[in-house]
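re the bet — no i am not wrong, look at it urself. input seq straight from the record:
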Amino acid sequence: MAFSSHGLTHRSTVTGRRGMIASGHPLASLAGVRILLEGGNAIDAAIATAAALNVVEPYMSGIGGVGYMHIYSARDKERKICDYVGLTPADTDLAMYDSLAQQDRGPLSPLVPGACGGWLEALSRYGSMEPADVFAPAIEYAEGGFALTVKNAMFFAGSANDLRRFPSSASTYLIDGASPEPGQVLIQDDLAETFRTVAAEGAEAFYRGPIADVMAAYMADTGGLLNKKDLANFEPVWLDPAEVAYRGHRIYAPAPPCQAVQYMETLALLEGFDIGGMGHNTADTLHTFIEAAKLACIDRIHYAAIDNPPTAGLLSPEYATKRRQEISPTAAAVHMGDTYRDERQDGEVGPGDPQQWMKTECTTHFDTIDAEGNAVACTQSLGSGFGSAMVVPGTGIALNNFMRWFDRVANSPNAIGPSKKNEMCVSPAQVWDDDGLRLLIGTPGSYGILQTTPQMIMNVIDHKMNVQAAIEGARCKATGDRKVDAESRIPAEVLAELERRGHQINDLGDWSAGVGGGQGIMIDPDSGAFMGGADPRRDGYAIGC
C-alpha cells in the first residue's frame, strides 16, 4: 500500500517488527506488549489486553460483557471468530419492558456475560501461556491501582449518578462518593480476586461455581432475570467470518446476527464508484458514502436478526449492482435510522430483496499481532458506560446492558425475547489481499461502528493513508431521516454542498468520540513490519516492539 501526503497526522504512526498492540488505553497496550516480550503470542497478548482494559476502561468492556474476537492463527492457517455474545435470560419477556430505561440500566438489562468464557476459550485454542500469566498485568493494575486520565474521568463523571443507584457500584468506582478526578488512583481489589479465581479455576468458577452463585443471588435480590441456569448454559461459539470483496482486498468480519454485514454491504455498494478519484472527504465522496450506508442500514435492520439471514445475497456483486441504482448523486434520501420502527415516512428507503441473489450460503476495540503472523482484531463491550451500572457485590464484575440493543417493537426481527441472540454492533475487521493480511481495524461507537469502520477502510484502500491518518480522518455519520453528524474538520464548503443536496448537518466539533475511537494495525507488504494507529478521540494508544 502506497503512502501519500495523507501520512501527516496529529499523532505519530507507531512501528514495530516483533509485535504490536493498539488498544483503547496505554496501560492495556503495555500489558499486551509485556506478554509479547515474555514470549507469548498475539492471542496471549489479546487476553492480557482485554483483561487490562476491564481495569483501566471499566466503563467500556470487561469480564461481565460480550464481544467478538477475530483471530488469525499462523499455525493453523485459519481465520476464526470466537463469539462470546451471551443470550438473553430464558425468563425474558417483551411484556416486562415498558420503557427504554429498563433496557438501559438496572437488573432487567444484562445479557449472559460471555467475556470470561470467550477469553479462556480463545486462550485454550490458540494461546501459548497459562491463564495466570496473561491475567497478571490486569491483576497488578487492579490491586495496585491506576491513575485516571482526563478522558477516564470524563467517562466516570458521565455515569456517576447511575452508579450511585447501586451501593456495590458506588463503592467500586466512586471515591468518597464522588466521581474520581484525573490523577486520582482507583483500586479494584474485588476484580483482582475474580481474575485470580478465574485464572486458577477456569470458566467453571464463573459460570457454574462460586462466582455464578453470587451473580445469580444478586440478580434475584434486585429483581433481575439472569439466573444460575442461564449462566451454566453459556458456551462461546467458534464461527467462520463473512467476507466481501473491495478493490482487490477481502474484508472479513463476523456474520449476522453481527451487524458488520451493514458496513460490508456499504463497501460492496461503494465498489461501483471511483471513491479514490472523487477525493477524500469531498462532497461527492461523503454523499455517496452516506447514501450507501442508508441502504445497507435498512437491509441490516430487516435481515441481520432473522433466522438464516441472506448474507451471501446481501454481499453479492449482483445485489450491490441492483441496489446501487437507488443512490441519487444529487439528493439525500430519507432513512429509518439505526433501529426498527413500524411507521414509514414518505420517500423513505426500504430494504432490497437479496434472496434472488442467493448462492450457497457460505465497545472497545483492540488489535494484536506477533512476529509469527498470529493476529487478533477484537471488539467487546459492556454496552453503555458501565453497562447496567450494576457491579456484582464482592466480585468487581460490572454487568453489561445489551438488552438495550433489542427493540421493544414486536414486529422487529430484533425484538426482545427469551434465550435470544441480539443483533450485535461490535464488529472487528481483518483486511487481506492476495499476498496476506494487510490491516486489523475496528472501533467502539454503538451503531456508529457500522459507519466509522468503512470510512477507516476507505481511507486506507481508496485514499492511500497510513493507519494513523486513516483513524484520525474527519468522520460523518447518518443518523436518521436526512440528518448527518459531522466533525467540523470536514471543510465548510463540503458541508455546505451536502446541505444543498438535502443533508441536515449536525456539527460535532473538531474531534468527537461520538464517531468512535478506532484502533488499527497495518502490515507492510514488503518488509512485514507493523504500523499501529490509535484514536486521539479517546485514550487509544499503540505500542510496538
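see?? The longest helix spans residues 283-303. told u. also The radius of gyration is 22 Å. so pay up
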